[in-house]
TrEMBL record:
The chain holds residues 183 to 407 of 407 of the full protein. Transmembrane segments: none annotated. One of its GO terms (biological process) is coenzyme A biosynthetic process. GO terms for molecular function: FMN binding; metal ion binding; phosphopantothenate--cysteine ligase activity; phosphopantothenoylcysteine decarboxylase activity. It comes from the Bacteria. This is Coenzyme A biosynthesis bifunctional protein CoaBC.
Length: 225
């Protein structure tokens, strides 16, 4: 019922959202990944749909139900997420990058399971850098309004603002971990080129759906401005 009565502040807007971790395989049974429950991204997808937006959610491997009315595309690797997002980013008004994308992947994928037997030493793996999805979307000729996320373990404001400049995006949402990672409650810091502001405003914690709804109100105001 609460969902039904949300003001339709994003009616007519198209939002593209990435969520969850990516998984970068080493062999058929192993891989490297990031900690991410996907909860924040899924809450944003739900809040955006409630606010009347058309929502596309590109999700890494997570165990979460698809929010009502949301078009969901599942991917595994950062490269797959990139290949899914880039061709359709230009058809969206907003891109919200909540995904915890693996920065590196194994340089080569072993076709068969790597066996211990006969190895004198533990294997080493060469890594190669994954494409930066958010930076690539932000550098399109006519980019959607780009919102980044920055999960940091220290110096939140400085790191968030550096990322804002490096990726050339108008807004980044910071949060400090690891205490809050995977939890239902969180405390955010909205950072743009000129200002920063905690959400909730008093710096306390709120559940991710409440934060997502507040973020959609904020986004609607910025799009209208
Ligand atoms: N991001 C992305 N593609 C990547 C890496 C990051 O789209 N390959 C996005 C994330 O979804 C997030 C933002 O960029 O919205 C910041 O991600 P983060 O990992 O904090 O930034 P990095 O530039 O990778 O810096 P670092 O991991 O070194 O802190
Ligand atoms: Ca990263």
């Amino acid at each position: 019922l609460v969902a039904f009565f949300q003001p339709k502040v994003l009616a007519g807007r198209r939002l593209l959202i990435t969520a969850g971790p990516t998984f970068e395989p080493i062999d058929p049974v192993r891989g490297i990944t990031n900690h991410s429950s996907g909860k924040m991204g899924f809450a944003i997808a739900r809040a955006a749909a409630e606010a009347g937006a058309q929502v596309t959610l590109v999700a890494g491997p997570v165990h979460l139900p698809t929010p009502r009315g949301v078009r969901r595309i599942d991917v595994m690797t950062a490269q797959q997420m990139f290949d899914t997002v880039l061709p359709q980013a230009g058809q969206h008004d907003v891109f919200v990058a909540t995904a915890a994308v693996a920065d590196w992947r194994p340089a080569s994928l072993s076709e068969h399971k790597i066996k211990k037997e006969g190895k004198k030493q533990a294997p080493t793996f060469e890594l190669t850098e994954n494409p930066d999805i958010l930076a690539a979307v932000a550098s399109l000729a006519q980019p959607p309004y780009c919102v980044g996320f920055a999960a940091e373990s220290e110096q939140l404001l400085a790191h968030a603002r550096a990322k804002l400049l490096r990726k050339r995006i108008p807004l980044i949402v910071g949060n400090l971990g690891p205490a809050t990672f995977g939890r239902d409650d969180n405390s955010l810091l909205l950072v743009d080129a000129h200002s920063e502001r905690p959400l909730p405003a008093d710096g306390s914690q709120a559940d991710k759906l409440t934060l997502a709804r507040a973020l959609m109100t904020e986004l609607a105001q910025r799009l209208a401005a």
